[in-house]
Amino acid sequence: MSNPNAAVPHHIAIVMDGNGRWATRRFLPRVAGHKQGVESLRRCVKACADRGVGVLTVFAFSSENWNRPIEEVSGLMDLMVLALGREVPKLSQDGVRLHFVGERGGLSEKIAAGLLQAEAATAHNTRLVLNVCFNYGGRWDIARAAAQLAARGEPLTEANLDAAMALSHVPDPDLFIRTGGEQRLSNFLLWQSAYAELFFSDRLWPEFDEAALDEAIEVYRRRERRFGKTSAQVTGGARHDPQAA
């Protein structure tokens, strides 16, 4: 049965996987798949906002992606510049607030400036927070937070680490979606996804539409989130089930 207390996840995180394979299967360059992936992201942002999702976090470019062929990396950088110029005004109009999460030191001045401008232009919006993880890695995030605490002389506690993480401005993800048929986290939101519900879709990211999002949300609704408690504790039942985990 559906969980009435979790009708819609407040925070959805997505590994947008499969752009390159989508293009290859159509005998197109991989960058064409990434362009189509931007269209899918635009559709997903609107769908999340329409369904009452509060936060959407997407994995756009990992710190490991620099190891891909230079023409693909260059194409991705060009696509980011193009998307910033084309998408930000519409996102702002739709009430979306942008945050770019990741190491900016290795980015070009043009891209780094574009990220700052996009964040400033949408800072007043409240309908949906869109976190775009760009040049991001989960291990980088944890190491960076620990280094910040050490530099400030603060104790390394869970609470302090949590407050120093790159996504401390939003609650942890409720639903973690990965498209493309792979079933791994790939160094995405390792700290924040400790209790996220995982959903793996065989659809390639350019094929992930509103129906696929609704399927993931419905699967999420059917799950019982216990956060270490027993099922009886969560549902208010009187009996303790020693087999519950």
TrEMBL record:
Binds 2 magnesium ions per subunit. Substrate binds at residues 18-22, 30, 34, 62-64, 66, 68, 178, 184-186. Its EC number is 2.5.1.-. The active site is at residues 17, 65. GO terms for molecular function: ditrans,polycis-undecaprenyl-diphosphate synthase [(2E,6E)-farnesyl-diphosphate specific] activity. Mg(2+) binds at residues 17, 197. Its cofactor is Mg(2+). CDD domains: Cis_IPPS (cd00475). InterPro entries: UPP_synth-like (IPR001441), UPP_synth-like_CS (IPR018520), UPP_synth-like_sf (IPR036424). The keyword Phosphoprotein does not apply. Keywords: Magnesium, Metal-binding, Transferase. Belongs to the UPP synthase family. HAMAP family: ISPT. Catalyzes the condensation of isopentenyl diphosphate (IPP) with allylic pyrophosphates generating different type of terpenoids. Homodimer. This is Isoprenyl transferase. The lineage of its organism: Bacteria, Pseudomonadati, Pseudomonadota, Betaproteobacteria, Burkholderiales.
